[in-house]
Design brief:
single chain; about 140 residues; alpha/beta; five-stranded mixed sheet; 5 strands; about 15% strand; rod-shaped
C-alpha cells in the first residue's frame, strides 16, 4: 500500500520583513532631514503685501510685537542689543538672511531701526513677513 504525502507549497509566500525594514529606515531619514520652522506664539496682525515671496527656513527670525518689544530666538532683547545678537547668530552662515516678523501696528520708525540693526550686523538679505506669506 502506497501512502500519499501532502506536500507543502512554499513558493507562494513572500517574506516582507526586509520591506518593513526599508520603510522604517526611509521614515527615519525623512524625519531627521526635515526642518521645521517654529514661530513664536505672539498675537500679531501681519502687514499685507501682494509681492511677497516665501522666506528661507534657515533665516534668523526677529520678532517685534505690538508693544514694540523685540525677540530673537524667543528671548526678549533690547533694541540696542539686536545688532550684536544677530551678528552672533549669523556667524558662519553662507547666505546671512534675517526675517522680521512684526505687527502692522508697529511704528515704521521701530521697524526701520530693527531692519537697520540687522543689516549693520552683517545680514545681506533682510525681509519682513507679511500676511500672504506663511513660511
Amino acid at each position: 500500500m502506497k501512502r500519499l504525502r501532502s506536500r507543502k507549497d512554499d513558493g507562494g509566500s513572500i517574506d516582507i520583513s526586509p520591506l518593513i525594514d526599508v520603510v522604517f529606515i526611509l521614515l527615519i531619514f525623512f524625519m531627521v532631514t526635515t526642518t521645521f520652522v517654529k514661530d513664536m506664539k505672539l498675537d500679531l496682525e501681519r502687514p499685507s503685501a501682494r509681492s511677497s515671496t516665501r522666506a528661507s527656513t534657515k533665516a534668523i527670525r526677529v520678532y517685534v510685537d505690538r508693544g514694540e518689544r523685540v525677540y530673537i530666538d524667543e528671548v526678549p532683547v533690547k533694541p540696542w542689543m539686536v545688532e550684536s545678537r544677530v551678528r552672533e547668530l549669523l556667524a558662519g552662515q553662507d547666505e546671512p538672511t534675517v526675517v522680521v516678523v512684526t505687527d502692522r501696528r508697529v511704528p515704521a520708525e521701530t521697524l526701520i531701526e530693527v531692519v537697520d540693526r540687522c543689516r549693520l550686523a552683517g545680514a545681506q538679505n533682510v525681509g519682513v513677513i507679511t500676511d500672504a506669506e506663511e513660511g
